[in-house]
Amino acid sequence: MEKFIDLHTHSNKSDGSLSPAEVVREAKKAGLAAVALSDHDNFDGVEEAMAEGEKAGIEVIPAIEFSVKSETQNHIIALYPDIHNKELNDFVDELRRYRKERNEETCRRLNSLGFDITLDDVKSIAGSDIIGRAHFGRILYMKGFVSSIKEAFDLWLGSGKPAYTGANHPDAGRTVEIIRKSGGLSFVAHLNQTKLSDGDLVKMLTELKSRGLNGVEGYYTEYTPEMQEKYQAMAKDLGLLISGGSDFHGAAKPHISIGTGTGNLRIPYSVLENIKKAKEQL
């Protein structure tokens, strides 16, 4: 029987709704063979997730997702980093400070647009000190300003929308280099969200590969079959690995199920086997 995986999930240690252990149990319930917990800008839930994986009998991969500087939107996921590496942890601490500044700016922008929300409102539902746009989306929804969290992103919080700010995101090349030094492998997430032309995307990936980039998400919830085929072919042409995941957030993005996304996502275990082989060669 073919085994399936999900290498892009979030817990309530960033902007998901479930605890790290609950994410792992959800992955086990969905019949997955392996899952990566890739919370934004922190490792706070990794050890809990890995301990639950031992109990539940499912492989758990340590991971983290970084938002990096881009004219549009760009995220990089690290798989198998040493979560105790000092340089990596110093970098994470730096990003926590930047995230605090971005959240304050997001709140100011929403207020200037007429939305009566405060940072205390957002913190009250976050469950941790890592606040992200999904939390702002939930508050907008809970207060009746939008009909769904998706609408909050489509109208106000998404890249290029009035309340979006990418200020203080770290340089993508530096991020890739730090991940590599920590023993991890780096992957550009959800290529469609970069909103780059194919030519500009290839240019960006080629530059990041020269800095140590290992791969891209060749499987993702939002990809059409044509996108999936295109991005996987692009990775092959550039000599990059393929990763993939659902971007599961639990109730924060209720339309996305772990392992299957909106219903059709299937990421074979062979994807993880190739990543492990590359990890052994580092």
Q: Calculate the mean pLDDT score and round it.
A: 94
**Strand order in the sheet with the most strands:** 7-6-5-4-3-2-1-8
| Residue fraction in strands | 15-25%
Per DSSP E runs of 2 or more residues, the count of β-strands stands at 8
- What is the third-level CATH name, the topology of the largest domain? TIM Barrel
Q: Count the DSSP helices.
A: 10
What fraction, in percent, of the residue positions are helical? 40-55%
Dominant shape: globular
Walkthrough of the structure:
With 282 residues, the chain is α/β, with parallel strands linked by helices. The protein folds into 2 domains: 4-92 and 167-280, TIM Barrel; 93-157, DNA polymerase, domain 1 (Orthogonal Bundle), CATH 1.10.150. Helices cover 44% and strands 15% of the residues. It has helices spanning 20-29, 46-56, 86-112, 119-126, 133-142, 149-157, 172-181, 198-210, 225-238, 269-280, and strands at residues 4-9, 34-37, 59-68, 74-79, 185-188, 215-220, 241-245, 267-268. Strands 7-6-5-4-3-2-1-8 form an 8-stranded mixed β-sheet. The model has no long low-confidence stretch (mean pLDDT 94).
Task: Give the key terms.
single chain, 282 residues, alpha/beta, TIM Barrel, 2 domains, eight-stranded mixed beta sheet, 10 helices, 15% strand
SSE blueprint:
Layout: E1 4-9, H1 20-29, E2 34-37, H2 46-56, E3 59-68, E4 74-79, H3 86-112, H4 119-126, H5 133-142, H6 149-157, H7 172-181, E5 185-188, H8 198-210, E6 215-220, H9 225-238, E7 241-245, E8 267-268, H10 269-280
Parallel strand pairs: 1-2, 2-3, 5-6, 6-7
Antiparallel strand pairs: 1-8, 3-4, 4-5
